[in-house]
């Protein structure tokens, strides 16, 4: 079996991303297939993340695989001081695939180097969360019919938001135009703007979350502005209500616009948006199941049609 | 130039290695990176010597010792213009500049406290992502560091 881990979305080429999207589509049409019959898969969550773990475990279950693992490091031997390497060496003796989440950045990359079975990174600190990116891409692809030449408007915490950084990099294959809407303290970091420049991707920065910006978007990617991210709490108080989407703000938006959010949402999308057909964040989460089924089969080298 | 000649006369090597053109402020870091304190050979260290090219320089001469590439390339991070002279029978038989490799293993500490490499008993790995000005990026957490931020292990 070819060992192929998924640590970062950058591990996949444009062609591989497109192939995965096609597979995700096929799993959406038929999510219950017993292609993991006889396989055991570990979900090692050194940091709790119920949403991601349930999504992965549902994906495995619907494919007929079995699961071992833990949902919190407190219940694993790492609480006794066992190194990550030793945990991975031990678990990789037992299973065909390890899906792991860790609070330390780079943990999944290191695990992929010491493991004898593939690793899927289900989030490593503030670093990477590639299955989230795949489900974002699948949601965009599904709702727009293409990934090419789209206007992607990202709103909120663009500084610490891991999902927006990965999405930006993944979308770079598909000629997007970006609009970054954020308060000064949470602006898109310089390195990602340089990345856009290097890839000839146009981007525009805005401090105001205006209807003018919304009206030209194909995708409105909302993120949470978290109080603890601010050094200046006065600044937080000033901006906390600025980056909230209300239904009335969507009145002049494009018919194909869809509102995405990695969830959990707190108050950045008002509840009156939920009933708007352009609200897509709950279906987006559901798409995660299919995207993860596609990823699992890909890393295990299982061909499905 | 006459100064240099006198200097050479004092510590002329029969066989060994001369590391020349080390920036003065980095000299003792280079000494420690090369673990010269653990070598029993005769070592001559000079510092704050005049240099036309880099102002003030340091120089290290180690008798009867020849560095391996991976040993010597470590110092490329802090003394990129250093030159290596290999001496045999009082003659320079080989002279070369050090080169910074694409990948640095076990040389640099990641300055991200939440990086796995600072929390596991493991070797750090950095990729040189830009040479001018220098930037290295952690293979694990993807943190990039410039020359001022680099901390040598």
Order of helix and strand elements from N to C terminus of chain A: HEHEHEHEHEHEHEHEHEH
- Relative helix content of chain B: 10-25%
Structural class of chain A: alpha/beta
Strand order of the largest sheet of chain B: 2-3-1-4-5
Rg on CA atoms of chain B, Å: 17 Å
Mean pLDDT of chain A: 94
Structure, explained:
The complex is a heterodimer of chains A (305) and B (153). With 305 residues, chain A is an alpha/beta fold. In chain A, 36% of the residues lie in helices and 14% in strands. Chain A has two domains: 9-128 and 288-299, Rossmann fold; 130-285, 3-Layer(aba) Sandwich (Rossmann fold). In chain A, the strands form two sheets. Chain A has a five-stranded parallel beta sheet with strand order 7-6-5-8-9, covered by helices on one side. The longest helix of chain A is centred in the last third of the chain and has 19 residues, at 281-299. Chain A starts with 13 loop residues before the first helix and ends in a 6-residue tail after the last helix. Chain B is mostly beta strands and 153 residues long. Chain B has three helices and eleven strands; from the N terminus they run H-E-H-E-E-H-E-E-E-E-E-E-E-E. Chain B has helices spanning 2-11, 27-33, 69-73; strands at 15-23, 43-51, 55-63, 83-88, 91-97, 103-105, 108-109, 125-130, 135-138, 144-146, 151-152. Chain B starts with a helix and ends with a strand. The chains are: A alpha/beta (305), B mainly beta (153). Chains A and B meet through helix 4 of A and loops of B.
Write the layout of secondary structure elements.
The complex is a heterodimer of chains A (305) and B (153).
Chain A: H1 14-29, E1 40-45, H2 50-62, E2 66-70, H3 84-92, E3 97-102, H4 107-114, E4 119-124, H5 130-144, E5 151-155, H6 162-171, E6 177-181, H7 190-198, E7 203-206, H8 211-215, E8 219-222, H9 233-239, E9 258-260, H10 281-299
Helix pairs in contact in A: 1-5, 1-10, 2-10, 3-4, 5-6, 5-10
Chain B: H1 2-11, E1 15-23, H2 27-33, E2 43-51, E3 55-63, H3 69-73, E4 83-88, E5 91-97, E6 103-105, E7 108-109, E8 125-130, E9 135-138, E10 144-146, E11 151-152
Antiparallel strand pairs in B: 1-3, 1-4, 2-3, 4-5, 6-8, 7-11, 8-9, 9-10
């Amino acid at each position: 079996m070819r060992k192929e881990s998924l640590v970062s979305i950058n591990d996949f080429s444009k062609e591989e991303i497109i192939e995965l999207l096609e597979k995700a589509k096929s799993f959406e049409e038929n999510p219950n297939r017993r292609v993991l019959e006889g396989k055991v898969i570990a979900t090692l969550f050194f940091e709790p993340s119920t949403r991601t773990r349930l999504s992965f475990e549902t994906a495995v279950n619907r494919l007929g695989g079995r699961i071992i693992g833990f949902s919190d490091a407190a219940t694993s031997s790492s609480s006794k001081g066992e190194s990550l390497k030793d945990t991975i060496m031990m678990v990789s003796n037992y299973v065909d695939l390890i899906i792991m989440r860790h609070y330390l950045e780079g943990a999944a990359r290191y695990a992929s180097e010491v493991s004898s079975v593939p690793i899927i990174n289900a989030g490593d600190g503030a670093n990477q969360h590639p299955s989230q990116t795949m489900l974002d891409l699948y949601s965009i692809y599904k709702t727009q019919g293409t990934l090419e030449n789209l206007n992607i408007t990202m709103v909120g915490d663009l500084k610490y938001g891991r999902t927006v950084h990965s999405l930006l990099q993944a979308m770079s294959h598909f000629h997007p135009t970006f609009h970054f809407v954020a308060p000064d303290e949470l602006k898109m970091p310089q390195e990602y703007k340089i990345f856009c420049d290097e890839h000839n991707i146009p981007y525009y920065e805005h401090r105001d979350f205006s209807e003018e910006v919304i009206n030209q978007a194909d995708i409105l990617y909302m993120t949470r502005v978290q109080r603890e991210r601010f050094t200046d709490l006065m600044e937080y108080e000033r901006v906390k209500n600025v980056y909230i989407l209300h239904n009335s703000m969507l009145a002049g938006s494009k018919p194909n616009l869809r509102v995405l959010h990695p969830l959990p949402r707190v108050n950045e999308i008002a509840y009156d948006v939920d009933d708007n057909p352009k609200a897509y964040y709950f279906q987006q989460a559901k798409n995660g199941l299919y995207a993860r089924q596609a990823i699992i089969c890909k890393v295990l080298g299982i061909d499905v049609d | 130039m006459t100064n240099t000649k006198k200097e050479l006369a004092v510590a002329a090597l029969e066989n060994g290695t001369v590391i020349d053109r080390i920036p003065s402020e980095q000299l003792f870091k280079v000494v420690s990176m090369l673990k010269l304190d653990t070598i029993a050979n005769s070592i001559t260290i000079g510092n704050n010597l005049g240099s036309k090219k880099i102002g003030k320089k340091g120089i290290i001469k180690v008798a009867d010792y020849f560095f391996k590439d991976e040993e010597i390339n470590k110092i490329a991070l802090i003394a990129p213009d250093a030159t290596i002279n290999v001496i045999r029978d009082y003659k320079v038989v080989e002279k070369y500049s050090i080169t910074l490799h694409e990948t640095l293993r076990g040389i640099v500490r990641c300055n991200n406290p939440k990086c796995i490499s600072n929390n596991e008993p493991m070797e750090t790995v950095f990729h040189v992502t830009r040479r001018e000005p220098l930037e290295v990026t952690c293979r694990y957490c993807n943190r990039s560091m410039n020359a001022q931020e680099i901390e040598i292990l």
